[in-house]
Design goal:
Helix content is about 40%, strand content about 20%. It is of the alpha+beta class. Strands 6, 7, 8, 9, 10 and 11 form a 6-stranded antiparallel sheet that branches. The chain has a 3-stranded antiparallel sheet with strand order 1-2-3. Bound molecules: flavin-adenine dinucleotide.
Length: about 300
């Protein structure tokens, strides 16, 4: 796609130049910008951000073969995020994130700083040393957090083009698919004449914003990489002793489990109960988890919607 075509102030198609064909154009009743966070369609239609927070983190990642541990792990430390997860072809992806303010210093010695960062996780560096790095380190620091006006005369934006957030949580893909579904529903209503275009697309943007608001807040909070509040620390420590709780919370961070399920009253109360029981028989951690405390913090993260 090269440029948006206009007719009487309304987007009406795109000029294209496919790699293996001559330049041409496509006519369209709706031009959809699904071209990511550097969207040229957003630029061309003049879409303005109405919520904007500067980048909070930078990230480097690469892929290793021959890593013994095949389970995903998520380690958050003040100022650091280290993720490890198995992926295709027997490879393990390792992701190191840090505060955006430290990006310039980190990139002066990417490999050295990356490997040293792993030392906070006992055994991880040795595991990678036992395997082999199969790709170069890839990095990103242009990770703003925004909502852009995502509709106008003859155009709409989906996915990162319209709304982007830091990848410290993994909501991006789920939210991109969800916004595409919402837009498809809205465009269908307009195309069959059930609703005027403007009303249908306005509703699309409103529903997208509602659906992503809690994840956006959670992401901004997580991506600050600040020390966890004591009650959240206790929640995660209690969860770490229960594999099904870990799965559920990683699902929340990855956008595959609804936030309300991960921080529901019943779930956090169960965690509180299991930890108290573990303390009573001497096998649990020394701290005490109080369900009232645990409930308050996720409530504030999720805008009070953790039911
Ligand atoms: C380091 C990092 C880690 C991430 N980890 C996760 C994760 O674990 N889980 C998760 O859910 N999300 C993750 N995300 C976020 C996720 O990648 C994005 O939110 C998601 O890919 C957005 O999808 P999209 O289709 O909107 O945009 P994109 O995936 O960016 O796709 C846009 C496409 O448009 C194409 N394009 C651009 N311009 C043109 C043009 N002029 N003509 C034709 N095509 C064009 C691009 O080539 C690209 O293929 C991560 C992001 C980063 C940076």
């Amino acid at each position: 796609m090269r440029s948006v075509r206009w007719s009487e102030g309304r987007a009406c198609g795109v000029d294209i130049k496919p790699a293996s064909a001559a330049a041409g154009h496509l006519d369209a009743r709706l031009v959809v910008g699904a071209d990511g966070r550097h969207s040229s369609i957003a630029d061309q239609v003049g879409a303005q951000a109405y919520t904007h927070e500067p980048p909070l983190t930078f990230v480097y990642y690469s892929y290793w073969s021959g890593v013994p541990t095949q389970s995903p792990t998520y380690h958050m430390r003040p100022g650091q995020l280290i993720l490890r997860w198995p992926t295709n072809d027997g490879l393990t992806c390792v992701y190191v994130g840090g505060r955006h303010s430290e990006f310039a210093e980190f990139r002066r010695d990417v490999e050295g700083n990356f490997m040293r960062s792993l030392d906070v996780i006992p055994g991880l560096r040795d595991e990678l040393a036992a395997g082999r790095r199969e790709e170069r380190f890839r990095g990103a620091a242009d990770l703003p957090n925004y909502y852009r006006t995502s509709f106008g005369d003859g155009w709409a934006l989906v996915g990162d083009a319209g709304h982007h957030k830091d990848p410290t949580t993994g909501f991006g893909m789920s939210d991109a698919f969800a916004s595409a579904e919402l837009l498809a529903t809205a465009a269908d209503a307009a195309l069959v004449g059930e609703r005027p275009w403007e009303q249908a697309l306005c509703e699309y943007q409103r529903r997208r914003d509602d659906a992503t608001a809690n994840g956006f807040r959670l992401t901004l909070s997580a991506a600050s990489l600040d020390p966890l509040p004591a009650h959240l620390q206790r929640l995660y420590e209690a969860a770490s002793t229960r594999p099904e709780a870990v799965t559920r919370l990683i699902g929340v961070l990855g956008g595959t489990t609804p936030l309300g399920d991960g921080f529901s009253r019943r779930f956090t109360a169960e965690l509180a109960g299991s930890e108290l029981a573990a303390n009573a028989n001497g096998s649990g951690p020394r701290h005490t988890l109080r369900s009232r405390e645990v409930l308050r913090e996720p409530g504030s993260l999720t805008g009070g919607s953790g039911q």
